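Researcher: Sequence of Regulatory inactivation of DnaA Hda protein follows. Predict its structure.
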Amino acid sequence: MKPGAAQLPLGVGMRDDATFANFQPSGNEALVGALRAQLDESGEPFLFLWGGEGVGCSHLLQAACHEASDRDKRALYLPLDELGHFPPHMLEDSERLDLVAIDDLHRVLGRKRWEEALFHCFNRLRDAGKRLVIAAPAAPRQLDIKLPDLASRLTWGMTFHVKPLDDVGRFEALKLRARVRGMQLPDEVARYILHRGPRRLGDLFATLETLDQASLSAQRKLTIPFVKQALDW
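Model: Prediction complete. Tokens:
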């Protein structure tokens, strides 16, 4: 790659726990299936994900990159919320990768150099038969894109609205995250945490991590009295 791209490590900003196995797909099964199949020969070349804060767009993009790595493919995760203040050099030679995952697209829209670089990146990946997945808070036609050619390209692939979890889905997501961490989380304790804890899933999972550490330190099982004590609820 060119010098500007080489300075940015692959997987910048990625979390080890952002995997498909650690994602509760309730209501988003078709999207997860499309992402997991994207690197197949018959996979969709371009996927666009959109949804509100906390629904899991970033998790899914990182999971796609982890999946690519597990299949010995080269992937790059670009969170533009962190990287958008740089020039778009990291998009150069992107066609050498198997998958490019661009998060927080809205952070660079309206900036001529970035919009042009994204347009050319899209074309190079398409011509090379590589894969691209992009996430933003809104669907392509609702974004404030100045470059008409880029706006057109972003409607070419499959677009998915990442749906937020309902209460049943949140319960299942909490139980899933506990299982992945090796925690014994009784149903009544999970319901108590959901009732008293934060609404945002990321904050809820952080609460679960706090309880895991407290439980290990105290050598105690997770019960409602212990949760009250550990979290001062």
